[in-house]
């Protein structure tokens, strides 16, 4: 084997060995192939929006450290050739064999750690999605007696286990738990909902998020028209329906909107304002406050800005939606605000959750004291489970983990069941806002918490939407990426 080829294969083997460990160590065990492909296809602008420390970590662990493999091989080759005079051919064969064994080991590790066999199997699964999906564009929505506003708060990685973190059963979300409202006990994480943009889209549309594969013969490239046409532009979402009902809609986040194509989704689905890092800067937010992931604003600043927008919109007496997603509680250890106390700053992810929980509860209580529930429904939910490492799961979490979900509203109705997925959130919100004619009617893959369908019927439906086959290729799902738009009536 040519020495240059051999050293390149040593380097490649190192990358294959180290990359999955970097991915899992950075994003946790919840990373899916769909998530990886989605981010790879997002384009250079999305890559540029990534946190600087994350880019530096990738360069160090995935690009630089693998150089140790060919460097070690070269040193061993030089030493062996000098010590084993006349046996250089044997040394070369041993190095070539070692290279091939390492390449095989690296490939096997890459495939196993990233669950690639399961992903490949899903590409050949049954299309159960097409038979399950109920198209909201074919449904009619009624004008409510009184248009209520909506504040939808996605808290990064918020799950119920954070109320009893082992050891010691530490309650890292005590303040959120103490807020009034209806909490749903069993919020399950379905396939295609396990990362932030997937959690947002699935909760607003009733479908999972998975990459779309263009026909290369027609489009000529892997990306197709993805960057130009937006994110699932033909998918009918909650925001599309509320726009037609006259709602002014905001989405707020701390980092750059280009990350994970958040800008593409919100521009494709009738949000009037999408505000991230660049927009906060242009609005005059102090530059010293941009200290969290991706050089965005911390959760405490985000919540302060959200409060200002909510109060301003309420004063205008027109219906509005303010959706926001926090970021400071991201795996692995959170990004504690400089304004948190010393205990929170030095308590890893638990401290980050305690501070964000405290700030969030303070904002919500302030709104409640000002009478916001007279005309506004508030929902607090996790975007997905905390992407814990194996060690964190073993030491801090139970086996039976659930995402957090709470509705804070003056509506006296109680949910009719205590089990849900992301898919059930959009129809539940529309029922809360008084816009659905029939709460039993399915929305996408979702069934409202206010539906009165028999428990056994929901259980059968739940089993299907929790199946990995929900991500199998689907003719109906592919239509969501078409430029032709449908809208809710």
CATH names the topology of the largest domain as: Alkaline Phosphatase, subunit A
How is the largest sheet built, in terms of strand order?
2-8-7-1-6-4-5
Strand content: 5-15%
Uncertain spans, ≥5 residues at pLDDT below 50?
A: 214-227
Q: What gap, in angstroms, lies between the N and C termini?
A: 66 Å
**Overall form:** globular
The biggest sheet, with number of strands, parallel, antiparallel or mixed sense and barrel status, is: 7 strands, mixed
Quickly give the structural class. Answer: alpha/beta
Can you offer a commentary on this structure?
The chain has 489 residues and is an alpha/beta fold. Helices cover 45% and strands 8% of the residues. It has helices at 3-27, 33-40, 44-48, 52-64, 68-83, 88-113, 116-122, 129-132, 174-178, 196-205, 216-219, 226-229, 238-244, 262-268, 277-282, 299-315, 342-345, 348-369, 390-396, 425-432, 455-465, 475-478; strands at 149-155, 182-183, 186-187, 248-253, 273-275, 320-325, 376-382, 405-408, 419-420. The strands form 2 sheets. The chain has a 7-stranded mixed beta sheet with strand order 2-8-7-1-6-4-5, with helices on both faces. Helix 1 packs antiparallel against helix 5 and helix 1 runs parallel beside helix 6 (88-113).
């Amino acid at each position: 084997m040519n020495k240059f080829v051999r050293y390149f294969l040593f380097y490649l083997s190192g990358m294959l060995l180290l990359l999955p460990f970097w991915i899992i160590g950075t994003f946790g065990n919840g990373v899916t192939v769909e998530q990886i492909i989605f981010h790879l296809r997002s384009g250079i602008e999305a890559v540029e929006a990534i946190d600087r420390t994350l880019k530096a970590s990738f360069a160090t662990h995935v690009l630089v450290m693998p150089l140790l493999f060919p460097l070690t091989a070269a040193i061993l080759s030089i030493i062996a050739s000098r010590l084993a005079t006349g046996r250089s051919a044997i040394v070369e064969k041993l190095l070539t064999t070692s290279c091939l064994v390492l390449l095989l080991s690296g490939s096997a590790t890459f495939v196993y750690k990233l669950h690639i066999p399961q992903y490949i199997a899903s590409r050949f699964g049954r299309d159960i999605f097409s038979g399950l999906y109920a198209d909201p564009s074919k449904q009619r929505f009624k004008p409510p007696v009184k248009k209520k506003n909506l504040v939808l708060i996605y808290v990064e990685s918020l799950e119920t286990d954070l109320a009893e973190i082992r050891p010691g059963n530490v309650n890292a979300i005590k303040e959120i738990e103490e807020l009034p409202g209806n909490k749903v006990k069993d919020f399950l994480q379905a396939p295609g909902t396990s990362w932030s943009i997937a959690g947002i889209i699935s909760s607003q549309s009733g479908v999972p998020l998975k990459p779309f594969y263009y026909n290369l013969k027609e489009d000529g490239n892997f990306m197709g028209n993805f960057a130009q046409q937006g994110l699932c532009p033909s998918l009918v979402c909650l925001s599309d329906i509320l726009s037609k009902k006259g709602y002014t809609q905001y989405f707020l986040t701390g980092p750059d909107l280009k990350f994970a194509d958040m800008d593409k989704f919100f521009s494709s689905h009738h949000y009037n304002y999408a505000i991230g890092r660049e927009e906060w800067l242009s609005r005059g937010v102090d530059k010293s406050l941009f200290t969290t992931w991706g050089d965005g604003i911390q959760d405490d600043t985000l919540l302060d800005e959200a409060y200002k927008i909510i109060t301003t919109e309420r004063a205008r007496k027109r219906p509005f939606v303010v959706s926001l997603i926090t970021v400071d509680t991201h795996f692995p250890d959170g990004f504690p605000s400089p304004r948190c106390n010393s205990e929170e700053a030095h308590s890893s992810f638990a401290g980050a959750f305690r501070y964000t929980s405290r700030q969030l509860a303070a904002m919500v209580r302030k709104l409640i004291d000002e009478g916001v529930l007279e005309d506004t429904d508030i929902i607090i939910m996790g975007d997905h489970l905390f992407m814990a490492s194996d060690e964190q799961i073993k030491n801090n979490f139970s086996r039976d983990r659930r995402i957090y979900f709470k509705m804070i509203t003056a509506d006296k109705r109680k949910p009719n069941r205590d089990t849900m997925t992301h898919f059930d959130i959009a129809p539940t919100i529309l029922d809360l806002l008084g816009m659905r004619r029939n709460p039993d009617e399915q929305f996408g893959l979702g069934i409202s918490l206010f539906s009165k369908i028999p428990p056994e019927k929901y259980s059968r439906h739940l089993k299907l939407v929790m199946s990995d086959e929900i991500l199998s290729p689907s003719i109906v799902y592919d239509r969501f990426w078409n430029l032709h738009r449908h809208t809710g009536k």
